[in-house]
């Protein structure tokens, strides 16, 4: 545990200014940063407390939902205008206590649960660039199937992000250079040779809100895990379908626990709107999966989870 | 038989935060200590450089191998006297400072020069060096009865299997802690231990000081499960050294991460089990071979195959335990040591045999009931296993067990399984003292600590009840070596050992009071037959009900200073009976084979463990044990990184234990059992719930989806697509 300077940002402009300093970290709910700091995994020189900034509103207008980055997960889940897919994903996340503290922005930017990343004395390129990837030849049951590199096989742990990806959400980012928007899955970087950077955010940039367009269809969030509660997904699937006259006219599928970011299953989506069966969509979902020694079962699990989620939304095919 | 079941005596204290645990011992001028961990996992420490630590503001002391040389050299002090690193995370020094922050900062700045040797990080790397220890637990590691090999060759049915169980860690809610100080030559040690008296002996031995100069106190213990024993002592000694050198009290508390490395673990097992049956399903042979891990600085084998020696009737039994030394943490007993992993194999194999033979699993077990202890060649002091099967089956509805794989509910395929549980009834020497004050308030004293399982309550309850006093008039004092000596909290034997001592002391006290009453002309009971007197509502009364006197009035005249009795219980040197507690555990699981998820839906367990002193506490022990067993079956798994030798994921985010959502309804049946041969008729119950349930779950999974899981924990990938 290293010492850090603590500063509470009075307004957004001050947060952006303080956050641009090298070694600065934003503190919102603190449910992840404090763990990482205590474990010696992250040692910010300055902690910029943004928890009181006015970025908490949850609003809905013309079917478009806007989640303030500092809205707490529990508040989002309880809000009547929030899409049920988001509510389900949040309800499946963490514990009641954590959902009361954790924020939307913090949840999206939480770091991987890879045990090599979370132990300060093990090889991990994400935590300590150049130290190697301990999981590649070590314990890798929880590792990713898609989007990995030789440098990193970690997954992104958020449930909320998977639901948001399936809903084609965007994040609004504010920074020294102004405001910009990214698609939810563009927010995340694939590891490549630089796994230390999780997100496409420049120093000092801040997620201000998440914008969720309307989706007029049915949906489900399916989370498979080793115990019944308070556990990250082994595999999860967010599925949303719009069916008209017995035909799927719109399909959205995203998977969690299988990639460094929420993994949109676009080939399966396209096939579904072209009349493919759920089984065919399941088969397409796992194309290109790259198993390691311990996580091969997740390929079959993903295939089955996609089919199950589609059946839940659309009825047995 | 005690019908009332008082609630936990210390419950309100604990809920209100007023129960003082060792780490919370209030003391002035306290130093905080932090352990400095080795930078290597195997090798030698060449130098410990504390220069940078000494200049940290608030620094008080650094204890390294050099400072520990003043301790006596013996097994326990080797880790702190010899600069040899056996496992990753092994401490090499202790830093004490004015604040915890200062101690952490100073500890982080200690520089260690080390020579790393090649570490053995996994049992598989050293199979060629496997060896047979002399003991498995407290029993011989190898046994042979009859000729199992020949009997297997002639058996009508042979069931063979390879079983594996994972490393588990104990994880009591309260981490190990010590607050210690010296008053002249006197050492005062408040520490989390399952053995205050053994801890006192170890301290006296290590510091080469008289036993009388050491006081060990543990008034409340936040669980132990077997890990609060001698592995903690070296680090406690370092804290005591720092206290003696600085003249200030020192506090050391392990971190949650250190409970993965410094406190012990349940041994992983590889088991080869072969059962031979005749055509009627009677066991003709058992061959149970066990391989386990031990560390390079200690030796321990669970008695994993022990249960195969006596649970069922079988003329030909061969068992053996072998060990492999690795540079991993040292295993120690963990709740239901040996029995839990051993029964997982044995009871899974029984289920497999029942299925092959087309015999109901309960019926197969009944056919193989052991009428006496064939290993010890002794009669059972009592044995109600058949009643456990009968009553448990009735409550669970076993007779309606559907055909395998035929029941489902929504996405869940439903399966039922059963397994036997058992645990030997241990007991040890114990002393207890009773003090009846002039106002007829009673104090019960015994030095043994309460692990959190209810010792305060049960002792107060039995003594108070025998003297007709309400719980509010009874005080229980435990967990202090200044009190009469009692046993260690291990082997489920505390209640079974202390109860007879308290019972004897209270009988003596009743006799003394009766004698005083009948001999006192001023008492309404004068001249009565002492045997006709009883005790109720604070009074001594004649059985005929025609005379009574408040205890306080009798004491005021006859014993104005109160009365005191002290009794000792000694278990017999040679046993003429074998004592055993039993259980039958019935489980309903739901398995979603499409997604691999397994959930326990229902547990019904019938236990027979002699006289139950307090059904509320007993139920709590049984349910807690079953939850631990569910964790072992489905969740708990400590993994070593083969490359670095480090334990992966040292926290509860990665070491999964059952959450409330993983706990089903528990239906506990307590089978009445009158054991005339055991003192007080009491058997230990703490282990019974933890064993058996693993195989019951595995058998239920097989019943649901046809998968025979022989490796714990059973996870998604084991049943996916079944």
Summed up, the helix count of chain A is: 12
Under the CATH scheme, which architecture of the domain at 218-314 in chain A would be assigned?
Answer: 2-Layer Sandwich
Which strand order does the major sheet of chain B show? Answer: 3-5-1-14-11-12-13
Rg of Cα set of chain B:
27 Å
Largest interface: A-B, 30 and 31 residues
Secondary-structure class of chain B: alpha+beta
Low-confidence parts of chain B, pLDDT < 50 over ≥5 residues? Answer: none
Structure classification of chain A:
alpha+beta
Question: Distance N terminus to C terminus of chain A?
Answer: 54 Å
Intertermini distance of chain B? 50 Å
Helix content of chain B: 25-40%
Amount of helix of chain A: 25-40%
**What's the shape of chain B?**
globular
**What is the level-2 CATH architecture name of the largest domain in chain B?**
2-Layer Sandwich
Hey, roughly how much beta strand do the residues of chain A contain? 15-25%
> Largest beta sheet of chain B, briefly?
7 strands, mixed
Protein name (chain A): Xanthine dehydrogenase YagS FAD-binding subunit
InterPro entries (chain A): CO_DH_flav_C, CO_DH_flav_C_dom_sf, Diverse_Substr_Oxidored, FAD-bd_PCMH, FAD-bd_PCMH-like_sf, FAD-bd_PCMH_sub1, FAD-bd_PCMH_sub2, Mopterin_DH_FAD-bd
GO molecular function, one term (chain A): xanthine dehydrogenase activity
Pfam families (chain A): CO_deh_flav_C (PF03450), FAD_binding_5 (PF00941)
Task: Give an overview of the whole structure.
Chain A: GO terms for molecular function: xanthine dehydrogenase activity. Chain A: Residues 1-217 form the FAD-binding PCMH-type domain. The complex is a heterodimer of chains A (317) and B (722). Chain A has 317 residues and is α+β, with helices and mostly antiparallel strands. Helix content of chain A is 28%, strand content 22%. Chain A has a domain at 218-314: Enolase-like, domain 1 (2-Layer Sandwich). Chain A is built from twelve helices and twelve strands. In chain A, strand 6 and strand 7 form a beta hairpin. Chain A starts with a strand and ends with a helix. Chain B is an alpha+beta fold. Chain B folds into three domains: 11-118 and 175-221 and 229-260, Aldehyde oxidase/xanthine dehydrogenase, a/b hammerhead (Aldehyde Oxidoreductase, domain 3, Alpha-Beta Complex), CATH 3.90.1170.50; 269-426 and 576-719, Aldehyde Oxidoreductase, domain 4 (2-Layer Sandwich), CATH 3.30.365; 430-569, 2-Layer Sandwich (Aldehyde Oxidoreductase, domain 4), CATH 3.30.365. Chain B is built from 18 helices and 29 strands. Chain B has a seven-stranded mixed β-sheet with strand order 3-5-1-14-11-12-13, sandwiched between helices. In chain B, strands 9-17-16-15-10 form a five-stranded mixed β-sheet, sandwiched between helices. Chain B has a five-stranded mixed β-sheet with strand order 18-19-27-28-29, sandwiched between helices. In chain B, a hairpin with a 5-residue loop joins strand 24 (539-542) and strand 25 (548-550). In chain B, helix 10 runs parallel beside helix 17, helix 13 runs parallel beside helix 14 (494-518) and helix 16 (615-634) crosses helix 17 (693-705). The longest helix of chain B is centred in the C-terminal third of the chain and has 25 residues, at 494-518. Chains A and B meet through helix 7 and helix 12 of A and loops of B.
